Amino acid sequence: MAQAIPFITPDGLLSHWQGHRRLTRRVVDAFPEDKLFSFSVGGMRPFGALAMEMVTMAVPMVRGAISGEWNASTSRDARPKSEVLRLWDEDTDQLNELWPQIPPQRFLETLTAFGQYPGVLHDLILYVIDNEIHHRGQGYVYLRALGIEPPAFYDRG
Amino acid sequence: MAQAIPFITPDGLLSHWQGHRRLTRRVVDAFPEDKLFSFSVGGMRPFGALAMEMVTMAVPMVRGAISGEWNASTSRDARPKSEVLRLWDEDTDQLNELWPQIPPQRFLETLTAFGQYPGVLHDLILYVIDNEIHHRGQGYVYLRALGIEPPAFYDRG
Fold first, then answer.
1. C-alpha of B75 from chain center
2. pLDDT tens digits along B70-124
3. Are A145 and B42 a contacting pair at CB < 8 A?
4. What share of chain A is helix, strand, coil (3-state, %, to 5)?
5. A134: nearest CB among B42, B137, B142
6. Hey, is the C-beta of B148 within 8 angstroms of any chain A C-beta?
7. pLDDT at res. A5
8. What average pLDDT does this structure show over A90-108?
9. Is A130 on the interface with B (CB under 8 A)?
10. Complex ipTM above 0.90?
């Protein structure tokens, strides 16, 4: 059946995502402590709030896909950069642990994430990754506007 | 073999990409004609130049993956918005035509794109999409800085 032809495998997608997460971590770290939750352009949210949004989406999406229990209750409030990075690193480890627990056929199944977002699981997971890339691109502009050179987009190591 | 388990199929990925392309088209269209190739924040490139970069990457990547011939010679120079949108729509059709010509096993093979970027084809294609999302996120900030509400990120229809 056509579904047996992979564009990318689950393992490949996790590697791809973790590469993005390493880059996003560097973008968080590039912000001066006093700008992370205060600076923005055009009235948008500061990058710290966007990073905390990412935290509320990544592990909760994967955990929900495994268990059917949806929880995105982490606060997005301002906190020290070190605390954002600590949460980020914890989630990186948790994603590696949780990912193999997703039954492979589930990626092609339709479910309702967080009780309100229906979709095929691969689209729901790509949405989480795309949202990270989208807001990180926003973070690049904030860094440039602050006179700070952002990390190289192509470097995912 | 593990490779037979898809996270997403080639068809699913093309639909996902075309959803992003519809959104990116709306972002191009949201720029005032006189700002598309002139306005930017923090000394970055204007959104028109970023959109033209996307044009040099999308169809050329897919065509190269099929033929082994790499060509990204489209100029990124300023031009009327209608011309950017016309190229965009042409490429949307071309992607739909070309995509099924990629032999499915090729997505998991390593090749060297444009004679200089080695990688597994699925990573190379995801790079093109991620680059579009990344720069489009930048475009959202430009629009907000211009006082223009960007199109909804979640709307891909």
1. 15
2. 987 778 899 999 999 999 999 999 999 999 999 999 999 999 999 999 999 999 9
3. yes
4. 60, 5, 35
5. B137
6. no
7. 80
8. 96
9. yes
10. yes
pLDDT at B4: 65
Test the B interface: residue of A5, A8, A22 with most B CBs within 10 Å: A8
- Please state the separation of Cα B119 from the chain's center in Å: 18
Residue B123 sits at the chain A interface (C-beta within 8 Å): yes
Does residue B3 register a pLDDT over 70?
Answer: no
With contacts defined as CB-CB under 8 Å, which chain B residues touch A3? Answer: 6, 9
- pLDDT tops 70 at residue A1: no
The whole-angstrom separation of Cα A136 and Cα A140 is: 6
Q: Rounded to the nearest 5°, which phi and psi values hold at B117?
A: -115, 95
Q: Give the pLDDT of residue A2.
A: 46
- The H or E element spanning position A39 is none
* CA of B130 vs chain A CAs: smallest distance (Å): 7
HEC string of B1-68 equals: CHHHCCCECHHHHHHHHHHHHHHHHHHHHHCCCCCCCCCCCCCCCCHHHHHHHHHHHHHHHHHHHHHC
